[in-house]
Design a protein that fits this description.
Keywords: FAD, Flavoprotein, Oxidoreductase. GO terms for molecular function: flavin adenine dinucleotide binding; oxidoreductase activity, acting on the CH-CH group of donors. InterPro entries: Acyl-CoA_Oxase/DH_mid-dom, Acyl-CoA_Oxase/DH_mid-dom_sf, AcylCo_DH-like_C, AcylCoA_DH/ox_N, AcylCoA_DH/ox_N_sf, AcylCoA_DH/oxidase_NM_dom_sf, Mycobact_Acyl-CoA_DH. By secondary structure, the protein is of the alpha+beta class. The chain has three domains: about 10-90, no CATH class; about 120-230, Butyryl-CoA Dehydrogenase, subunit A, domain 2; about 250-380, Up-down Bundle (Butyryl-CoA Dehydrogenase, subunit A, domain 3), CATH 1.20.140.10. It is built from twelve helices and ten strands. The chain has helices spanning about 10-25, 45-50, 70-80, 95-100, 105-115, 230-240, 245-250, 255-275, 290-305, 310-330, 350-355, 370-380, and strands at about 120-125, 140-145, 145-155, 165-170, 180-185, 195-200, 205-215, 220, 280, 285. The protein has a four-stranded mixed β-sheet. Strands 2-3-7-6 form a four-stranded antiparallel β-sheet, with no helix packed on it. A two-stranded antiparallel ribbon has the order 9-10. Strand 9 (about 280) and strand 10 (about 285) form a beta hairpin. Helix 9 packs antiparallel against helix 10 and helix 10 packs across helix 11 (about 350-355). The longest helix has 22 residues, at about 255-275.
C-alpha cells in the first residue's frame, strides 16, 4: 500500500490546467452534489469528454480512450470530485460487447459506447425475483432471425436517457434456471419498450421498464443462446469491485468505487465545515486534535478502499461508507444532521443526505450478505450455505 505523495511535472500540471478549463467552461458544478445522486453530466460536457477520450481515459485510443497514465488518470479523477462532475461510463459492459457481440454490434454500438456518446442501463432485476437474477421471467422467443421479448424489469436506473439496455432474458424452461438465460443489448428506442419512473427518497429516482412484443434482430444477442449467465457473470464481478487494481475502477464501472467517491465528497464537505466553523470563540474545529484525528481516520479508510481487491470491494466500500458517513455527520452535529433547506444545515444538507442514503448501498446490486457468501465461495473455497 503506497501512501506517498508525488510532485507533478510541467506536463502533468498542463494536463491539470486543461481539465480545469474544460470543467469551468462546460460545467456548472453543484458544490453539494454527491456521487449517489444518480445524476448525469450535460450533453455538452459529455461531448467534450468524449472528444478527448476522457470518458474511459485509460483505454487505448483505438477504443475511444485517451491512453492516460496512472497519474493523469488520477488527476482527472480528483478534478471530477472537486468539480462534482457526475460519474458515468460504459466500462461495465464494454469487455462483454467486445467479446460476445456480433460483427454488427461491434461495428455500430461499440464505438459509440467506447467514446461515451452512447449509454446503457441494466435490465437485471425483476418485480418477483429480487436479488435472484437467475430467476428472471422476462422471456425472449426466437422468431426466424429475430427475438420477441416480453416481460418487466425493476430498478432500470437511467432507462429514461439510455441508448441501450443490457438485458437478461429467459430463452428456455424456467426450471433450468442458470442454463436457460441469454443476454441481449437492446436499443431503447425499439417499439414496445415502455419506461415508467419510480420515485425514491429525496431527489433520487429509478425506473420500471416493460417489454411488450419487442422485436430485436439476432445480431443484438450477446454470446450463445442459453449461456447468458456466463456472459453476465463477468460484468457482475466488475460491478462489485472497488480497488484501483481492478480494470473496472479505471473505467468508472464499479459500484464500490462510487461508494468510495461519495465518501471522498463527504470528507471534502467535512473539512470545509471544520475550516469555517468555530467550536468556541476564536477556535476553529480544524484546530481541535480530536476533529483532525477523525478526519484523518476517514482519509485512511478511503486509501484502504482504493487498494482493496476488487472481489471484496462492494462489501467493504459499502460498510466503510455506512460507518464513516455516520461519523462525519456526528462530527458536524448539530448542523450535520439538518436536512436540505433547514437553517444552518452543514453543506446545505448534503452530509445528512449522504448519511441517509448510505444504508441503501448494502442493497444495491445484491445485498452485502449475498456478496459475503459469494466471496466465501469464490475466494475462500467455502462450501455453499444451506
Amino acid at each position: 500500500m503506497d501512501f506517498s505523495r508525488i510532485e507533478l511535472d510541467d506536463e502533468q500540471r498542463a494536463f491539470e490546467a486543461e481539465v480545469r478549463e474544460v470543467f469551468e467552461n462546460h460545467w456548472t458544478p453543484d458544490p453539494h452534489a454527491l456521487n449517489l445522486d444518480h445524476e448525469r453530466p450535460s450533453k455538452e460536457l459529455i461531448e467534450q469528454l468524449a472528444e478527448r477520450g476522457w470518458v474511459h481515459p485509460r483505454s487505448p485510443r483505438s477504443r475511444g480512450g485517451a491512453e492516460l497514465d496512472a497519474v493523469r488518470a488520477r488527476i482527472l479523477d480528483l478534478l471530477q470530485v472537486e468539480y462534482r462532475v457526475p460519474r458515468f461510463g460504459n466500462g461495465l459492459i464494454l469487455p462483454t460487447v467486445r467479446k460476445y457481440g456480433s460483427d454488427q454490434l461491434r461495428a455500430t454500438a461499440l464505438p459509440a459506447l467506447e467514446s461515451g456518446r452512447a449509454s446503457f442501463c441494466l435490465g437485471y432485476s425483476e418485480p418477483d425475483s429480487g436479488s435472484d437474477m437467475a430467476a428472471a421471467r422476462t422471456r425472449a422467443v426466437r422468431d426466424g432471425d429475430e427475438w420477441v421479448i416480453n416481460g418487466a424489469k425493476m430498478f432500470t436506473t437511467y432507462a429514461e436517457i439510455a441508448d441501450y439496455v443490457f438485458l437478461l432474458a429467459r430463452t428456455g424452461p424456467v426450471e433450468e434456471k442458470h442454463r436457460s438465460l441469454t443476454m441481449f443489448l437492446v436499443p431503447m428506442d425499439t417499439p414496445g419498450i415502455e419506461v415508467k419512473p419510480i420515485s425514491a427518497m429525496g431527489h433520487v429516482g429509478t425506473n420500471m421498464t416493460f417489454y411488450r412484443d419487442v422485436r430485436v434482430p439476432d445480431s443484438y444477442r450477446l454470446g450463445p443462446v442459453g449461456e447468458g449467465w456466463r456472459v453476465v457473470s463477468e460484468p457482475l464481478a466488475t460491478e462489485h469491485g472497488a480497488g484501483e487494481g481492478s480494470e473496472l475502477a479505471e473505467l468508472n464501472g464499479s459500484m464500490g468505487s462510487a461508494f468510495v467517491r461519495t465518501l471522498e465528497e463527504m470528507l471534502d464537505l467535512a473539512v470545509e465545515w471544520a475550516r469555517t466553523t468555530e467550536l468556541e470563540p476564536g477556535v476553529l474545529a480544524i484546530d481541535d486534535p480530536l476533529v483532525r484525528h477523525a478526519l484523518a481516520g476517514v482519509l485512511l479508510d478511503i486509501e484502504v478502499e482504493w487498494n482493496t481487491p476488487s472481489e471484496f470491494g462492494k462489501v467493504t466500500a459499502s460498510e466503510t461508507l455506512l460507518r464513516d458517513a455516520e461519523l462525519l455527520v456526528d462530527l458536524m452535529a448539530p448542523a450535520g444532521v439538518l436536512a436540505e433547506g433547514a437553517d444552518g444545515a452543514a453543506a446545505q444538507g448534503s452530509a445528512a443526505w449522504a448519511r441517509a442514503m448510505a444504508p441503501a448501498t448494502q442493497i444495491y446490486g445484491g445485498t452485502t450478505d449475498i456478496w459475503r457468501n459469494n466471496v466465501g465461495r469464490s475466494s475462500l473455497g467455502l462450501p455453499r450455505s444451506r
